[in-house]
Design a protein that fits this description.
With 88 residues, the chain is mainly α. It has helices at residues 10-19, 25-50, 56-66, 75-82. It folds into 2 domains: 1-53, no CATH class; 55-88, no CATH class. It starts with 9 loop residues before the first helix and ends in a 6-residue tail after the last helix.
Length: 88
């Protein structure tokens, strides 16, 4: 999650590029913008869930339980099915 309110502008990124010339500034700016969008989405989801006295973890548990025919499971069963190891 992005912890700063404003991401660096082009002027600041040019200073960064001058100091670290090997840096792909376009990629850094793209990454920072994507991080900002992800943070905004997380904030929005958390705000929405708070209206129902839910935290994101509890919400995920509810969603995972809805996958099960009998609405129950065990942590070890989830662990086998749900561990995400990143892109293939």
């Amino acid at each position: 999650m992005l912890q700063v309110k404003d991401i660096p502008n082009a002027e600041i990124m040019q200073k960064f590029a001058a100091r670290y010339p090997q840096t792909d500034i376009k990629s850094v700016i793209t990454f920072l913008n994507l991080l900002r969008v992800g943070s905004d989405l997380t904030y929005g989801l958390n705000s929405y869930l708070a209206e129902y006295d839910l935290l994101q973890g509890r919400w995920w548990v509810l969603l995972l339980l809805m996958r099960e025919d009998n609405l129950s499971s065990t942590p070890s069963a989830w662990q086998k099915k749900q561990v995400y190891h990143g892109p293939p």
